[in-house]
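Q: Two folds, back to back.
A: First:
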Amino acid sequence: MTRQKLLKVLVACLVFVACDIWMYTSLRGSFRSYYEANSLKEVSLFARTMPGDPSYYEDWIAGLPQEIPGARGMILERDEEWNFSPAASDPVAKAIWNTYHDQEEFQKGLESVYYLLPYKVSKPIKGTDLAGIEGSENSAGWWVYFLPVPDESGFDSSGAVLMAIPEDSAAPFEQLLRTLAILAGLIFVTLFSVGTLARDPITGYGVIFLFGMAIAFVAYPLFEALRLTFVEAGVFSLAIWKRTFSPQYLVSLWGSVKLGIITASVATVIGFAFAFLTERTGVRGKKLIGTLATMPVISPPFSLTLSIILLFGNNGLITHQLLGIRNASIYGLGGLVMVQTIGMFPIAYMTLSSVLRSIDSTMEDAALDLRASRLGTFLTITLPLSLPGLLSAWLLVFTNSLADFANPLLLAGSYRVLSVEAYIEVTGRSNLGGGAALSLLLLMPTLTAFFAQRYWVNKKSVVTVTGKPSTRLAELATRPVRICLSIFVGLCLVFILSLYGTIVAGCFVKNWGIDYSFTLSNIGEALSRGKQAILSTVILAAAATPIAGLIAMAAALIVVRRTFVGKRILEVLLMTPFAIPGTLLGISYILAFNKPPLLLVGTGAIMVINYVIRELPVGLETGAASLRQIDPSIEEAAQDLGADTAQVFTTVVLPLIRPSFLTSMSYTFVRSMTAVSAVIFLISARWYHLTVQIYNFSENLRFGLASVLSTVLIIIVLGVFVLMQFLLRDRGLTEKSIIR
C-alpha cells in the first residue's frame, strides 16, 4: 500500500461519487416532472367518471382511494352565481376545503375550473395542519387538484372535483432510487479499493461477496424478524413476547422439547445399532443395508406420515381392516415419535458410521490381547470413543425434530408443538410477529443442547490416531449379538420397505380405507394437477444445486486457507442457517423481501436463495473437512508457477475436493426437492412446490393423489441420489477389513 495507490483510490472514488450524485439528482428531477404530469392527467381523466346522479356521490368518493392509491376527494356543486358548495366529501378533503377555501390559491383553482382547465396548487398542504382528522396521519402532506366537471354541452362547467393526493405517494420510488445510488457508490468504492490495494484481489472480492450474501440473506432477514417481535400497531411493545411466554405456548414448547428428546434418544440408539452392524461386524450386504437405511432421508417428509396413516390410521389397512380395531388412533405423541424416528434415524446412522469407521482399533486390540472381554472392551473403549459422535448425532436429530412441522401438521392431532403454532400464527391469523417470536423461542432448546454438547466434548479427549492408522478393525460382537443385531436391523428395514410399498400401493387404490379396488385414474389426475408443481420443483432445485455447490467450495477455500479481518464472524453467519428452524427462515424472508429494494416475495428467485442459504452450511463443512486433509503446498506450488487464485481453485482445489463438491450438490438437490418448512411460506401461484401439493392432497384425504406425487418425488430424488453415489463410490481407499 503506497501513497500513490491511496491517492489513485481517493481520486477515482471522488469522481465516481460525484457522477453518482449527478445521475441521482437528474433521474429524480426527471421522475418528479413525469410523475406530476402523469398525476394531473390521471386525476383529470378520473374526474370525468363522476356519476350524474347525486345519490351515487358518496359511493364514488369512497371508492376513490382504491382507484388512485391514497387519494381523497370532494364533489363541489355550483349555483348560477358561480358559488361552489360541497355535495359529498371525504373527511380529509372536507378539512382541507374548510381550512383553505378562502385563500387565493384555492380561488385560482375555482377560477381555472370556470375555463374547464385543471389546476394544481403550487405548494402541498401540510399534514400537520390536519391533525386529528381521520386518514390525514398517513401522509406528510397533500397535493390538491381542482378538476372541472363539464356539463352536457361540454362548453361549460357543472361543478368541480377537489382531489387530494398524498405528497409521499412517489416516495417509494425515490427511496429506491436513493438506495440504489448509495449501493452503487459503496460497491464501486469497495471493489476499486480492494482491486487496487489488496495483494490478492480475487480473495478480497470473494470475502466481500460472502459477507454481502451473509448480511443480505442471513443477518438482515433475522434482524427484521426480531425487530417485528417488538413492534405492535407501529410502536415499540413487549405484548408479542408476553403472549409468546403465556402458558398456552409454553405447553407447546414443552411438547416440542419432549418430542425432540424422545425422538433423538430412540433414533440415536437405532442409528448406532445400524452403524455398528455395518461398520464393526462382518455381516454381508452392508451396501444394501446402508442404501435402504438412507431411504427416509431422500424421500419427501410427508411420505412416511402418509404411509403411517394408510396403515395405522382410523381406517388403516392394519388397524381397521386386518385387526378390526375401531377406537385406536395413530394421532398424537406416539405416532409422531414413530414417524420422526423412522425419518431421522438415518441422520444418526450416517453420523455414527463415519465415527465407528475412523476409530483406530489399536487400543481395542491391546485390550483384547490383555484378555479383556469383548463386552468390556466395547464398554470401556469403543463406546467412550464414540460418545462425541453419539452426542453429535443426538443433537442433529433433536434439532431436526424441533424444526419439523411437516409431520405434526398431519399427525399431531391434539398434541401441540411450537413449530405448528408458529405456522398457524402466520398462515391462519396473519400474525407475522407472533410467528417470528414463536420460531425464535424454538432456538432456546436448540442452542441449549448445542452449547451443552460442545462444553462436554471440549472437556474430553478422544484422540487415538497419532500416526499411521490401522487398516483393520476388531469385531467385538459375538455371534449371538451379531444375530440379534441382524434380526433387529432386518425388521426395521422390512418395516421401512412396507411403508414405501404402501405409498406405491396407494397409487392404485380407488379410495384408501373405503374402497380398495384397483384403479389407474389416480395417476392421470395427480400428474395433470401436479404437473406445474413437479416442473417448478425440479427447475428450482436444479438451479440452486450448482450455485450452492460452487459457493460452498469457494467459501470453504477462503475460510480454511485465508486469513482476514472478520473471519470468525463470517463463519458464524454462514453456519447460522443450519441452527435456526426453517419456519423462522421462511418468516424472515417474507418480512425482509416484500419491499424495495429487494422485492422478491412471489418469485422463484427467493426460493432458490432459500435453498442455497439453507443448505450452504453442510457444503461448507464438507468442503472445509476435505481441504484440511490436503497439503497447502500443492496450491502454493501452483501459485509459484504463475497461477492466480481463480486458476488454483478451478484447476487444483476443485478437482481434489470433487467428492465434497458432488456431495454438496447432491445434498442441496435432495433437500431442495423435499423441503417444506421454509418453502411453504415462500410459494406462489407461479412457483409452487411438490411437497406442498402432497400436503394439500393428504389434508383433503386424497391419499391416492398424494401417493402418486410422493412416488414421483421419490423416483426423481432416488435417481439423482444413485447417480451421485455412483460418482462418489468408494474405490476401496477408505475401506477397512474386519478381523474376527
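A: Second:
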Amino acid sequence: MTSPTYSDVWNLEVIFKGGSDSAELADHLEVTKDLIEQFHLKVNHWTPSNSSDDAATLTELLADFEAAGKKLRQAGAFVGCLQAQNTDDKKAYTLEAAVTGLSAAFQSSLSAFDHVLTTVSDDAWLEILKDENLKALTFSLTERRERAKDKLSKEEEAMISALGVDGYHSWGQLYDLIVSKIKIPVEDNGEVKQLSVGQAFNKFSSPERQLRQSVFRNWEKAWNEQADYLSKTLNHLSGFRLNVYKKRGWEEVLKEPLSINRMKKETLETMWQVISENKQPLVQYLNRKAQLLGLEKLSWYDLDAPYGKTETKISYQEGAEFIEQNFALFGEKLAAFTKNAFENQWIEAEDRPGKAPGGFCTGFPEDEQSRIFMTYSGTPSNVSTLAHELGHAFHSYAMRGVHYLNRGYAMNVAETASTFAEMIVSDAAVKNAKDEEEKLVLLDDKIQRSVALLMNIHARFIFETRFYEERKRGPVSTERLNELMEAAQKEAYCEALDEYHPLFWASKLHFFITGVPFYNFPYTFGFLFSLGIYAQALDEGKGYEEKYIALLRDTASMTVEDLASKHLQVDLTQKDFWEKAVGLCIDDIDEFLKLTENK
C-alpha cells in the first residue's frame, strides 16, 4: 500500500486564515488581551484566607491561566511560523512585537500570581493541595511557589517584565532582523546566487570540499560584516539578564537554566565529565574521516561532509515514507500520529529562498496540532532532522489530556523525544543499507550527530559559561568573543581540527534566544537521556510504547533525577548511566573505524 503524495509546504490557513493579514488573528489577539487582563484583575483581588476557600479560588484562577496561556501560545506559534516561512514578511515582525507585549503582560500577571502563592502559610498550602482538583498539580504549583520566593517583590518583577519588552526581548528580535538581511553569495553552475543563511548552511553537507570551503569563506565574511552589531546585541541581551540576576541576589549564572531544566548541577557536571573522559574515540573518528577525505586534519566546514562522493538524494516523499515505516516498528500510536502530520500538511520543508535557517517544531494547543519547519534538500541528515522534529510533535501529542500547568516540560527533556525518534530512523537506515559503502555513508551521518552533541554543544557551553563570567565585568568586544569561541572549540574538539569557526557565536541563533538561557546543554542531556530510553526500548520491543508515553507525560511534573529514577531506575548524578549512553555512540565509531581500516 503506497502513501498519498505528501506536500512539502505546510498549511497554516486552518489555524488562522490570511497569514500576517489575518482578521481572525487580529480578533484572537484582542481576546487574548482581554483574558490576560481578566486573569490579572482576579490575581490582584485575591488575598488568601489560609482556609479551604483558597482551593476553590486557586482552581478558578488556574482555569483562567490555562485559557489565556493557550491563546497566547497559539498566537505566538503562528507568528513564529510566518516569520520562518518568509523572513521578508514585515507585518509578521509587527505581530511579533504585539505578541511579545502580551507575553510580557502575562508574565507580569504570573509573577503576581506566584507572589500570592508565597503568602499562603505552609500549613494552609499543604491543606490546599489535598483538594481533588489540585492534587495532580502539587509539583508544578509548589515549584512556582518556591521559585517566587527566590525572586524580587511582585512590583519589581512586574517592572522587569515590562522593561523587557523594549529591552531584553527587543535585542533578541533585532538579531532575527539582522539575520533576515544576510545573504551568502554561492556560485552554482557559473551563476552566483544570493542565498539565505538557511540555504547556504545546507551547502556544508555537500560532498564537494571546494564548494564547502567557498561557502564557508563567504559565510564568515557575511557574519563578520554584521559582527559589531551582533556583538552589541549579545552584550546588551546578556547584560540585561545579568542585571536581573544581580538584583535577585543570584551569583551563579547557571542557577536559572538549571532550575528551568529541573536538574541538579551535580547531574550536569557528571554528564560533562563523562563526555570529556570519553572523547578519544571521537577524535579517532575525526582523524579517520580526514584521512578518508585526503586531508591531514578536518576543518570546521568538513564536519558535516558526507563520507565518500555519494550523490544519492532522498526525495521528501521517500524520506517521509521511510520515517513512517520505521516508526511503525516501534509503535502504532507514533506511526498513526506521523501519518496524520504528513497527510494534513503540518510540515514546511520546501527548499526555497527567503526562509529562516534551522528547524523547529511549534505547538498550537487550541487545535492540538503542531507545525514543523525545516529546509529539506534530500540528504540523510535531512531525513534525521525531519524525524527529530516529528519526535517533538509526538511529545506534545502524548501530553494530551494533561493539565496545561503540567505540560510545561523543559528543553532538556523536550530534546529526549526528538532524539529518540531520530535514533529510530538513523539506526534503521544503517541496518537497511544495501551494501557496505551505503552503510558507511549512513553510519558516518549518524556519528556526525554524536560529534555535534558531544563536541559542538560542549564548545557552546564552554563559550557561554566563560562569556557570562567576563560579561559580569563589562561588555565583551567582538574580537574577544571570537577568541573565546575559538578557544572553546579547540578545547571541545581536543585540537582535532585544522580550522575553526570563531564567528560561531554570531551565526548561532541559540545564543540570542531570550526565552531560555543557556540554550545548549539541554540538547546533549536530551541526546544521552534518550539513548538510555532507546536501549530499554530495544530490549523490550514493540510493547515499550506505552511505557515511553507514560515517561513523556511525566516530563513536566518532576525533576529529571526523579523522572529517571521512576521510569529508568537510574541515578543521573552517578557516572554509570552517562557512560552507558556515551558507550552507544562509541559503538558506532568502533564499527566505522573497523569498516574503514583498509580504505
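Q: And?
A: DSSP finds 24 helices and five strands in the chain.
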